[in-house]
Design a protein that fits this description.
Elements: H1 11-22, E1 27-31, H2 33-37, H3 41-51, E2 55-57, E3 72-75, H4 82-90, E4 93-97, E5 118-123, H5 126-129, E6 135-138, H6 141-155, H7 164-180, H8 201-208, H9 214-224, E7 230-233, H10 238-245, E8 254-256, H11 265-276, E9 282-287, H12 288-293, H13 297-304, E10 309-314, H14 319-327, H15 356-361, E11 366-370, H16 373-385, E12 390-395, H17 420-435
Parallel strand pairs: 1-2, 1-4, 2-3, 4-5, 5-6, 7-8, 7-9, 9-10, 10-12, 11-12
Helix pairs in contact: 1-6, 3-6, 4-7, 7-9, 9-16
This protein binds thiamine diphosphate.
Length: about 450
């Protein structure tokens, strides 16, 4: 039996927290998974409203507070959006509630590294509460937020924000609309992740038979799936895109495995979510690489009569790893699904197209292939009517996922190399490491 024990905060810790907050004008709350596990979403929202403090979400914290709430800036960190990261950079106090402050949330400890920026944490785990030299409140999130709110109200606290929150949200909303509208046009197209495979895109468009871009598909799905659906993901480029672009409205409608970002979790995780939430539609968002690694729980879903929906984004490769390779100077190596070429002996032959709909149909899954938005809309509507598991094989162009929004990620790169691009990447890493907090 899982019980929420609701460890109360020590009085001295609350006094420290109030003292620190009273000295700060630009706080930002980081809403972590602990807010959801403590069932503290409504308390966090009330806390933010009471003192006019914006909040940003980690992957695990998404769907604790509605995405449309005017104080919710959305995802923060390496896979965060422009609004949350801009406010994070200007914040003089980061209030982490139920967050482990992972590498992605903190931008490898570079994002909250301003000289005047302090950290306050509310966490039931002392280990996480003490990270980043924080002022710790070791307590259950809900209990601590209630106690802290009473004391801050008595002290008359209010943040110093005027129009910054609204302006950041408006700027991101404009950018979101741009991402939602990106269309591929042969000959005159610069993808979001530019300068890598620009010349190969027409070949991909032809092999996939599709001009769909990933950002456009995600925006459409956010409209089509319905607020109460549960979105499940884990690996590839989709978690980053979802953290940035997905506005989760209903509580617990977003379930991302981002502790290990384990490929293959998506479908097995979706089956688990369905068993826990039988009345909700559950959608696994998986890349083609992840689907190939593990999708056998689709068969279990058929055996058990548990309907799940798989949204498979086929970009013909390990897209995000290709981005990392090419973004760090080493070129494309083994991450595009190409045949080994007889003439070069390398994996640089023709693209290997896979009909994923046919593979899943063999299991008894109802399947669709989407190469246009119209086909996608039709497939989603029809999938909702089914009582057995479904799979939509969505053909999307590589490099059309979102790119970064001002947060760094410490990716290992060779420190000694004869390749100028790698040397440059290594130099840049050294520069960022100097700016980042050491611990
Ligand atoms: C079990 C496991 N192995 C390796 C990785 C490293 N990894 C992360 S994403 C990825 C490729 C994902 O490709 P795909 O699922 O097609 O998604 P895309 O990046 O194209 O969106 C790899 C190999 C991982 N996260 N999990």
């Amino acid at each position: 039996m899982h019980r929420i024990e609701r460890r109360p905060a020590a009085e001295a810790a609350l006094e420290d927290a109030v003292r620190l907050m009273m000295s700060k004008r630009k706080p930002l709350i980081i809403c972590g998974g602990g807010v959801r596990y403590s069932e503290a979403g409504a308390e966090l929202q009330a806390f933010a409203e009471a003192f006019h403090i914006p909040l940003a979400e980690t992957q695990a914290g998404k769907s604790a507070v509605p995405g449309s709430h005017p104080l919710n800036l959305g995802g923060v960190g390496v896979t965060g959006n422009g609004a949350a990261n801009a406010i994070a950079k200007e914040a003089d106090l980061i209030i982490g509630v139920g967050t482990r402050f992972t590498d992605f949330t903190t931008g490898s400890k570079e994002l909250f590294s301003g000289s005047g920026t302090d950290i306050l944490t509310v966490n039931v785990s002392e280990f996480h509460a003490l990270k980043l030299e924080a002022t710790p409140v070791v307590a259950d999130a809900k209990a601590a937020l209630i106690a802290l709110r009473q004391r801050l109200e008595a002290a008359g606290y209010r943040s110093g924000y005027t129009a910054e929150i609204e302006a950041a949200r408006a700027a991101w909303s404009k950018e979101w609309k741009r991402l939602a509208g990106i269309q591929y046009a042969p000959g005159a197209f610069t993808p979001e992740v530019a300068g890598h495979l620009d010349e190969a895109l027409p070949e991909y468009a032809q092999a996939l038979g599709s001009c769909l871009t990933q950002t456009r598909v995600l925006a459409a799905l956010n409209r089509l799936l319905g607020d109460d659906a549960v979105v499940v993901g884990a690996s590839g480029s989709l978690p980053g895109d979802l953290q940035r672009m997905w506005a989760a409205e209903a509580p617990h409608s977003y379930h991302m495995e981002y502790g290990y970002s384990c490929m293959g979790y998506e479908i097995s995780g979706a089956l688990g979510v369905k068993m826990a939430e039988p009345d909700r539609e559950v959608y696994a968002f998986a890349g083609d690489g992840s689907y190939l690694m593990l999708h056998s729980e689709l068969v279990t879903s058929i055996q058990e009569g548990q309907k799940i929906n798989v949204l498979l984004f086929d970009n013909n490769g390990f897209g995000c790893i290709n981005n990392l390779q090419m973004g760090h100077g080493m070129g494309s190596f083994g991450t595009e699904f190409r045949a080994r070429s007889a003439s070069t002996g390398k994996l640089d032959g023709p693209l290997v197209g896979i009909d994923f709909a046919r593979s899943a149909a063999g299991y008894g899954v109802i399947t669709y292939t989407a190469r246009t938005l119209e086909e996608l809309e039709h497939a989603v509507a029809d999938a909702k009517r089914q009582t057995v598991s479904t799979l939509i094989d969505i053909k999307v162009l590589p490099k059309t996922m979102t790119n970064g929004y001002g947060a760094w990620w410490n990716v290992g790169v060779a420190e000694v190399s004869g390749k100028p691009d790698i040397a440059r990447a290594s130099e840049e890493r050294r520069r960022f490491l100097q700016q980042a907090r050491p611990y």
